[in-house]
Write a structure and sequence with these properties.
Distance between the termini: 33 Å
Shape: globular
Radius of gyration: 22 Å
Number of helices: 15
Helix content: 10-25%
Largest sheet: 8 strands, antiparallel
Number of strands: 20
Structural class: alpha+beta
Length: 564
């Protein structure tokens, strides 16, 4: 139905959960534009204007401004433009077009590929200091600037008005790319995707003659620029222009009080963290565990399911980690909340004799200490901070990484579960930072039609993320090979990728994977664009033609002009 008019310790357990949030963020971490808040805007947090500052290799801070969170990606641009106001974007783009300079955009730095930091980058537009959050009466919406990071946004929205947006987990993901890729997180089943609450977007675009325009595009059916709004509801970052501000107001919200314009998160949650020891788990039990997770989500996919208040992440860590872990959060105010949690944990343990234990945290040389032996009742923001900040590996800029993704619509065929088991128990690899995450979807995300937003995977029941982290460049080939081999064998029956069909539903654009472009890795005959966008891709191409006709904004997986 359409919603719109027209080892394991806690650190190891939460490895990669940032990326799972949408990521993680992921895809391109910024798209932006120009203009100042409407007169009379009520500021929750704004930034003083000192930019733009042009940082070059002669400046001490340059090495820190030319690298992504993923340590594999470091660039050598001639300059990094650090801005703190939307009005500073247009002049930079005007000059870049005139001088034919390649511009890429950063808001949080969590892009999982080299789309921002690569050898062709000449100018990086760094939006990280443009991070205001405020109410704008002119649009009757909450404005969030593209450089704001997720936890900062959650904290400001909740402290001021008791509301939130259902975005990702990792605290340092930037809004710029997270939203444009259709961001999701712990509240996805309860409140949908973050783009389901996006009212408008402010974008700086470049015409074929180099004219730079600031466009405010809304979801109003009569808005002549509505397609530009639509393109930013899952079309990915770095495709159409530079997003400087997002404006949020939930469909159906009334009045002018910000307290009523966006969802209220749970006041409190029940938070559970459990594990199963690899040493006790048989292959048959592993297969059953993965299929329990899948079948529960398939059975509870509906937007009105009583279990939409249950959100659970199953982390299939490599055997060297010691344990498989699961974090579950339930809205404590949901009807029969404790029973919902109990029933879910019972369901997950069906057919498994290995006892379920508590997650533990290693304390140096001290024996592991029990954590969350029983579910904890926690205030929502405390739980959100815990999930997003307590694991250094979620945000460790020294780690190298490789990622892959999949949407799942049905339970795992036996061959897929067995492939997961095979590669997670390989003895030629010894890295506790390898995991394959099964992450929640469905619920309210299922209430929106595929074409209503550019994010098309509305029929998916859950998602998957391959998250492989390591320290040394000398290990790149080994860990990239493991990621490819495990992923391609899991989807061997469909050419090595999760093509849209009755079981799988493609890939998440905010977890970009350049291997999807390679016919040696993607042997399905289904292009990367279909894996990300399904039937929405031609419409995105038309938006590209209208708003970026010279393909000024581009990267290895950017939306192509029609006929390209």
């Amino acid at each position: 139905m359409s919603q719109y008019p027209a080892g394991m310790h806690r650190r190891r357990f939460l490895i990669g959960a940032a990326a799972a949030g949408g990521a993680t963020a992921l895809g391109l971490e910024g798209t932006a534009v120009a203009a100042d808040p409407a007169a009379g805007a009520t500021a929750v947090a704004t930034t003083s204007t000192v930019g733009p500052v042009s940082v070059t290799a002669a400046d001490q801070q340059y090495p820190d401004l030319v690298r992504a969170l993923n340590a594999r990606y470091v660039a050598g641009p001639e300059s990094v433009k650090v801005i703190d106001s939307p009005s500073q974007v247009a002049p930079i783009l005007t000059e870049a077009f005139k001088s034919n300079k390649r511009v890429t955009i950063r808001s949080g730095g969590h892009c999982l590929e080299d789309f921002v930091y690569n050898s062709s980058t000449q100018i990086v537009l760094d939006l990280s200091n443009m991070n205001g959050v405020y109410y704008e009466p002119a649009k009757n919406a909450v404005c969030v600037e593209a450089g704001a990071t997720l936890l900062d946004v959650y904290s400001k929205l909740y402290a001021a008005w008791g509301v939130t947006i259902p975005g990702g987990i990792c605290y340092s993901v930037g809004m710029g790319g997270h939203v444009s890729g259709g961001g999701w997180g712990m509240l996805v089943r309860r409140n949908g995707l973050v783009v389901d609450h996006l009212y408008a977007v402010e974008v700086v675009t470049v015409a074929s003659d180099g004219t730079v325009r600031t466009i405010h595009a809304t979801r109003e059916p009569t808005d002549p620029n509505r397609e530009l709004w639509w393109a930013h509801t899952g079309g990915g970052g770095g495709n159409f222009g530079v997003v400087t501000r997002y404006y949020f107001r939930s469909p159906g919200a009334t009045g002018t009080d910000p307290r009523g314009l966006l969802p209220k998160p749970p006041a409190e949650v029940l938070f559970s963290a459990v594990s199963w020891a690899w040493s006790d788990l048989t292959k048959e039990e592993f297969v059953r565990l993965t299929q329990n997770y899948a079948s529960w989500h398939v059975a509870n996919i509906g937007p009105d399911s009583p279990n939409r208040f249950v959100t659970s992440f199953l982390l299939l860590n490599h055997r060297s980690n010691g344990q498989i872990g699961m974090v579950t959060q339930v809205d404590a105010a949901a009807p029969n909340a404790q029973q919902l949690l109990n029933d879910y944990l019972t369901y997950m343990n069906q057919g498994i004799d290995t006892p379920q234990g508590a997650l533990t945290e290693a304390m140096g040389d001290v024996a592991p200490m029990p954590q969350f032996a029983q579910p904890r009742r926690m205030p929502w923001l405390q739980a959100t901070r815990f999930a997003g900040t307590t694991n250094p590996q979620l945000n460790d800029p020294t780690l190298r990484a490789e990622y892959k993704s999949a949407y799942m619509k049905a339970n795992f065929p036996l061959a897929q579960s067995e492939a997961l088991y095979k590669h997670l128990t390989r003895t030629d690899i010894d890295n506790p930072k390898i995991n394959i995450q099964l992450t929640p979807y469905g619920g309210k995300a299922n209430a929106v039609a595929e074409a209503d937003t550019a994010a098309p995977h509305r029929g998916a029941a859950f998602k998957m993320l391959w998250s492989v982290l390591w320290n040394e460049a000398s290990d790149d080939a080994k860990y990239i090979a493991w990621t490819r081999e495990s992923y391609e064998e899991t989807y061997a029956s469909t050419g090595g990728v999760p093509v849209p069909n009755a079981v799988t539903d493609g890939c998440y654009v905010n977890y970009p994977d350049a291997d999807l472009n390679d016919s040696a890795r993607n042997r399905s005959g289904v292009p990367w664009s279909t894996l990300y966008y399904k039937g929405n891709y031609p419409r995105l191409q038309e938006a590209k033609k209208k708003y970026d006709p010279k393909n000024f904004f581009r990267h290895a997986q950017s939306v192509q002009l029609p006929g390209a």
